[in-house]
Amino acid sequence: MEVEFGDSIQAVCAIAAAADLPFIAPGFVDIQVNGFAGVDFNNPAASQSEIARAIDTILATGVTRCLPTVITGSPDDMLNCLRNLRAAQKQLPAIAGFHVEGPHIGIEDGPRGAHPARWVRKPEIAEFHSWQEATDGNIRLVTLSPHWPDAPAYIRAVVQAGCAVSIGHTGATAEQITAAADAGATLSTHLGNGAHAIMRRHPNYIWDQLAEDRLSASFIVDGFHVGRAFLKSALRAKTPARAVLVTDASAPAGAAPGRYRLGEQDADLTPDGRVVLSGTDKLAGSALRMNDGIANAIRLGDLTLRQAIDAATVNPARIVGLEGGMRGLSPGERGDLVVFRFVDGAICLDEIYLSGHPIVTRPRVR
Question: Which alpha helices (H) appear in 285-326, and where do they start and end?
């Protein structure tokens, strides 16, 4: 197809296919990114120039809209991180809003993941409103565990405020998961992770989320977080229409192996590409680039190219109500485009446009 665009897409026309023509897709959307290029979005002291550098590096992977993600921390640190990121958003149009992952999660080892136990706390709608005040109403997604007694009321209030709610980092029962969906939750955060290492065959909270058709599911397809068999099974259960690709990238993404920070904790990028809490084998985000995540979803999850692109574009945009990104390559949508080639199983980026303006043309990012 041929796309005419400026700040927004003006026309989309079918053209004859040719082997030497690249593909064109909407800009990728990442609704869970904790940091990049050595910059930790969970550091309230991160400078505006550092955040801008991280966003520029994310843009080079084809992600034209993202939700910087703040994880469990002290109330003051979380608020200060959100204020700092909101200041950056005013200058960086690729920041579409924010994802708050925690602090209302499961406290047990396993479901808690890499979140610090001392700051896990029950949901309070007043705290959500403080996040919204700090970001001028730009919280688009909240992840929590529905095991808390007040979770359904909290979810209803957050959804009524125009924010999406996701289930994650949980050991909730089937009844609690159903109640969360009844209250308006629409997503499972990085399904298959943030879970006990050993659990009952059935019932368990992963099966319960897979079976809940009102929940889409996000996946970290980096080759470390979930295995091929689980990914294929989960994608079949959810269907590609309810699949969302996220990077869950943290500060080491796009940087050299070594030691970095994730909030108040140290995290190491290992030579094989895993990000772990220092001194442990516990995963602490990823070093994944979205263009690689799309290629991995095709290779490991048996998605078609179109299905994998949708999982990184329109599917997440619809979950968080992202204006200008929910209808794909359609007239009136924002002029965020990626021109790429699919070569030897890799997504090779040729050109990236943000609101019609070229961002990256060379070198190609693989």
Answer: 290-301, 305-311, 314-319
Q: Which two tokens stand for residue 212?
A: 């809940």
Cα 285 from Cα 248, distance rounded (Å): 5
pTM for this entry: 0.96
Which DSSP string do the residues of 175-186 spell out, in sequence order? HHHHHHHHHT--
Structure tokens at 234: 């989960």
Cα–Cα distance, 219 to 233 (Å, whole number): 12
Whether domain 26-327 has CATH 3.40.630.30: no
CA–CA dist 132, 40 (Å, integer): 21
In the chain, domain spans: 26-327
- Interval 60-114: pLDDT, tens: 999 999 999 999 999 999 999 999 999 999 999 999 999 999 999 999 999 999 9
- Tens-digit pLDDT profile for residues 26-59: 999 999 999 999 999 999 999 999 999 999 999 9
The continuous run of DSSP H or E covering 339 comes out as strand 337-343
